[in-house]
Amino acid sequence: MSNLVRLIIGFVLVAAAVALFVFGHWGWGIPTILLSIFVFVTYFYNENMLIAQWHLRKDKMDKAEVALARITNYEKQLNKMQYGYYNLLLGLLESRKAPMKSEKYFKAALSLGLHMDHNIALAKLSLAGIAMGKRNKREAQMYLAEAKKADKNKLLADQIKQMKDQLGMLDRQQQVRYSHR
């Protein structure tokens, strides 16, 4: 359902609730107000995005993918603030199947805008992992430094430390490879 339709339904429900209150039907007016609040909340937070996030937290990737597949045209169905998060979720799903193909989603998420620092850190940490997979040490170090700076609450500190350790092992592997020649 497009956001314009959600707004229209929300305002119609508010008008109906006001009419019910005016005519003295408080018993029906209160649930109508609650329903209109629910419709307005889904304007800002798409229900399919919320369901996909729930399934990602429970590690049910197939169900999260189905929930995101229900969003057919994200520019019409989502608020502009959610474009980046939509691409972040697509990147997280794609990184489980084909990590190198998920790079475009993470870069799109960062360019479209993520508002929470830990989500920015997550996207940059994922990009650092992709850069390590491509054996691009400089880019991986850059993304790790940016992820560490963005992770102000230290939610991803352990993952960043592990990635730095793996980056150090990458150097040792290259040294061993070149010493045998």
How would you describe what is shown here?
Helices cover 78% and strands 0% of the residues. The chain starts with a helix and ends with a helix. It is elongated and about 85 Å long. It is mostly helical and 181 residues long. It has ten helices and no strands. The mean pLDDT is 90.
Describe, in short, the structure shown:
By secondary structure, the protein is mainly alpha-helical. The chain has 10 helices and no strands.
Annotate the secondary structure layout:
Elements: H1 3-22, H2 26-44, H3 47-57, H4 61-69, H5 74-77, H6 83-97, H7 103-112, H8 117-133, H9 137-150, H10 157-179
Number of helices: 10
Proportion of beta-strand residues: under 5%
Q: Mean of the pLDDT scores? A: 90
Order of helices and strands: HHHHHHHHHH
Secondary structure: helix percent = over 70%
Rg, please?
Answer: 22 Å
| Structural category | mainly alpha
How can the largest sheet be summarized? none
Rounded to the nearest angstrom, the distance between the terminal CA atoms is: 62 Å
Molecular shape = elongated
Number of strands: 0
Unreliable spans are none
What are its keywords?
181 residues; mainly alpha; 78% helix
